[in-house]
Amino acid sequence: AHNYYLNILAETGVLGLAAYLLLWSVTFGQTWWLLRRLAWPQRGVALGLLAAWTALTVHHLLDNLYVNNLYLHLGVMLGILQLLARENESGVYSR
């Protein structure tokens, strides 16, 4: 299927789709939360991550963007998000 969400639904069922959407919801939520709390330039990094998540989510409505090694890019971006969260907890880059 060209719609990735329908593909997940067909392959894993409602539970799999719900888990996938929950994963992205938590990712969006954490990025948005950090975006509002970080100072510049870390806020710019969080904004870039939010733009990447949004582009990927919208693109999945029309086509399957998962190509070879895309999971590495997603893993690096999730790692950067966790690094920003840890720096925010320690107060290194807070406003």
Produce the secondary structure layout.
Blueprint: H1 4-37, H2 42-62, H3 70-90
Helix pairs in contact: 1-2, 1-3
Walk me through what this model shows:
- Helix content is 80%, strand content 0%.
- The chain has 95 residues and is mainly alpha-helical.
- It has one domain.
- The model has no long low-confidence stretch (mean pLDDT 88).
* Number of continuous helical runs: 3
Count the beta strands. 0
What Rg do the Cα atoms give? 15 Å
Order of helices and strands: HHH
Bin the helical content. Answer: over 70%
State the domain count.
1
Reported for the largest beta sheet, the result is: none
Outline of this structure?
By secondary structure, the protein is an all-alpha fold. The chain has helices at 4-37, 42-62, 70-90. It has one domain.
Descriptive keywords:
elongated, 0% strand, mainly alpha, 80% helix, 95 residues
